[in-house]
C-alpha cells in the first residue's frame, strides 16, 4: 500500500519521470520504511537494555571461560549504540574492571560492527535472514578476533595506567517496574532517533543519487562479481572513511541494486563502521602502534573473509 502511494505521488500527482523521479521515489519510500522499522527495533533493544547494566556484564564475564567471556562481550556490543570511537571509553572501563583483554577486544570489535542501527536498517531493507547472517558473522569476527588479539598482545601494549576497579557484588538486573521500563525504553529510542535521523536521511539521499544516476556498469566494473578483488577494494576504500552505521547502511541497497555483490557491500560497511582512521588516532593514546596494527589487521582480515563468504553463500 505504501509503495503504491509513493508511486502515485511521484509518477502521477507530480507527473515526474526519468532518473530524478526514480531517485525521488527511492528516497521517499526508503526514508519512511527504514526510519519506521529502525524506531521499532531500537525500542525493542532499548527495552532489553533496561534489564542489563555494564556491571552485570562485567560480573558475568569475570571467571567465565574465554569463549563464553568473548561471546558475551560481543553480544553486549550489539546492545550498545556506539560507533568505533565512542566504544573506546567502555573498552577502558572493561580493562579497569579486570575483564580479560580478549573479551574487551571482542566488545571493541562488535560494538560498532554489530550496531543495532545497522542491523535494523539491514532488516528493514533486506529482511531478517540477511540481518541475522550479518549479525552472526559479525559475532564470529568479534569472538575470534578478540581471542587472537588476547593471545598475541602484551601488557606493555597498553600505554596508559588504568586503575583497577574492585567490585564484589553479584551480577544483577535492574529492579524497575514494567511500566517504567516501557517508558524509559521509549524515551531512549526517541532520543536515539532524534540523534541519528538526519544521518539516516543523508545516507538514503546519497543512496537515492546512486540508485538514479550512477551507471550500473561503473559499479559492476570495480565491485561486481567479475572482479575477484572487489571485497579487498571495498575494505580498503572503507577504512579511510569515518561514518556511523546510520549513514553508511542505507547505501547497501542501491549499491547491490547496481550490481555490487552483497558480501562486497557489507564488507565495505563493516570497514567504515568498525575500522577508521579517527579510531586509530584515538586508540594511539591508549595502546601501541603494534597492537593497533594487530587490531586493524585481524579485524580487516575477518571482514574480508566475511565478505567473500557472503558472496559465496548468497
Write the H/E string, N to C: HHHHHHHHHHHHHHHH
Measure the end-to-end span.
29 Å
- The percent range for strand residues is under 5%
Query: What is the overall shape?
Result: globular
What's the oligomerization state? single chain
How many H/I helical runs? 16
Provide the residue-averaged pLDDT: 78
Q: Find the count of extended strands (DSSP E, 2+ residues).
A: 0
- Biggest sheet architecture: none
How many structural units, i.e. domains?
A: 1
| Helix/sheet category | mainly alpha
Helix content: over 70%
Rg from C-alpha positions? 21 Å
Model regions low in confidence, pLDDT < 50 over at least 5 residues: 167-172
Task: Please explain how this structure is put together.
Helices cover 74% and strands 0% of the residues. It has helices at residues 2-13, 18-49, 54-61, 66-78, 88-96, 101-113, 116-126, 128-152, 178-213, 216-223, 230-238, 245-248, 252-257, 262-274, 277-283, 289-313. The radius of gyration is 21 Å and the shape is globular. It starts with a helix and ends with a helix.
Note the main attributes of this structure.
314 residues, mainly alpha, 0% strand
Compact description:
The chain contains 16 helices and no strands. It is an all-alpha fold and 314 residues long.
